[in-house]
Amino acid sequence: IGTALKFCGKLEKVDICLYNTKLADDGGQALASGLDRPELQDLDLRIRNTGVGESTGVALGQSLSKCFNLLKLNLELSTTKMADASGVALGQALHNCPKLTKATITLHSTKLTDRGGEALAAGLSRPELKDIVLYLQDTLVADSTA
Length: 146
Description:
Layout: H1 2-6, E1 13-19, H2 25-34, E2 42-48, H3 54-64, E3 72-78, H4 84-95, E4 102-106, H5 114-124, E5 131-135
Parallel strand pairs: 1-2, 2-3, 3-4, 4-5
């Protein structure tokens, strides 16, 4: 999928749902590299109950950091092995998307702690954002993130 996305020259909207698959970090990183699209405006990426972990989360953060025209983001990374490095990378990515006005982020059943949660919160601290939904259910975040 990631390779195919690279050949879509004017891609503005992407909707990918990968639930209950055998996707692991190698495939997750390949998918993330295909999302390195400055013209992308609307991304709905849902990955749930897979084997992806920190390498995928970091790669995804790096790719999203280059999506300068992203307006809307729906990102679900649930029941994965993702933890703080992913949260930090995604927080930095959110900070680098100057046009982002709507963000829904779901990190359910991950290994995220306050370190990653605080980085996500910092990435969401932007005046351009008009609509924020953040789900951190069954994680290890605590008082510092709140």
